[in-house]
Amino acid sequence: MEGASYRTIRTGGTFEVTEKKSRFIGEAGHAENEEEALAFLETIRKKHYDAKHHCFAFIGNGGAPVRSSDDGEPQGTAGHPILGVLQGAGLCSSILVVTRYFGGTLLGTGGLVRCYTAAAKGAVEASSVIEKKKGTRCTLRASYTDSGRLTYLLAENQIPVLDTSYGEDVALEMIIPYRKEDALAKKIAEATAGRTVPKDGRPVWYWEEDGSVLCEEEA
Questions:
Q1: Could you give the CA distance from residue 172 to residue 198 in angstroms, rounded to a whole number?
Q2: What's the fold here for domain 5-126?
Q3: Which of 162, 182, 183, 216 has its CA 20 to 30 A from that of 121?
């Protein structure tokens, strides 16, 4: 994925709009690729099997691919407005589906655009959205003498520490933000007179959730 960070849906939300007895049900979800997006869409289709339209938009990993569908509605009245909601929220790896139950009254193109947009926007607002950041997860082993100044150094530089264990030495499991690896390694070496350096580095994406820092290895 290009870039050092991106916004995505962590837990999808739902939102419903009713206009002249037509129901528009917006549902948002996380999808890393087209296969996951189509699986999410199929789940919605099965849940609302008796609805006529399941319009959607999907933006993949890194902002590509981009897909949208009017699913039988007049061209440009559903898929494009839903896609606009995703793009306006700056979301990647996300899918929005808006299901319509026809109420018997034609709403016109303007009415359709308004309702599909409102249902999609409401679903995003009801979702849990996180910002994933690129970094390197690594281990820092230090003596008890050095651990205090290193803990202060990491906090001062806003370096997330995932875990701290104590044995013969102190092991700090941490994440170094993207492109800060060399600068931080230099500061650590200076603080410990070269006695310790970060080891076992591996690329990850990390984010904050409920006051904790979580991460996953980069695919």
A1: 9
A2: Ribosomal Protein S5; domain 2 (3.30.230)
A3: 216
Q: Where are the domains of the chain?
A: 5-126, 132-217
What is the separation of C-alpha 30 from the centre of its chain, rounded to a whole number of angstroms? 7
Which pLDDT tens digit goes with each residue over 140-190?
Answer: 999 999 999 999 999 999 999 999 999 999 999 999 999 999 999 999 999
Query: Exposure of 64 by Cβ count < 10 A (0-12 exposed, 13-18 middle, 19+ buried)?
Result: exposed
Could you give the 3-state DSSP secondary structure of residue 51?
Answer: coil
How many other CB atoms are found less than 10 A from the CB of residue 44?
A: 19
- Name, in order, each residue with C-beta under 8 angstroms of 175's C-beta and a sequence gap of 6 or more: 135, 136, 137, 138, 159, 160, 162, 204, 206, 213, 215
Evaluate whether 113 touches 121 at the Cβ level (below 8 Å): no
Query: pTM above the 0.90 mark?
Result: no
- The segments of the chain whose pLDDT lies below 70 read 1-2, 219
Q: How far apart are CA 92 and CA 178, in angstroms?
A: 19
Q: Can you give the pLDDT at residue 104?
A: 87
- CATH 3.40.50.300 assigned to domain 132-217? The reply is no
What is the 8-class DSSP label of residue 63? G
Q: Note whether 5-126 and 132-217 share their fold.
A: no
Cβ 203 vs Cβ 217: under 8 Å: yes
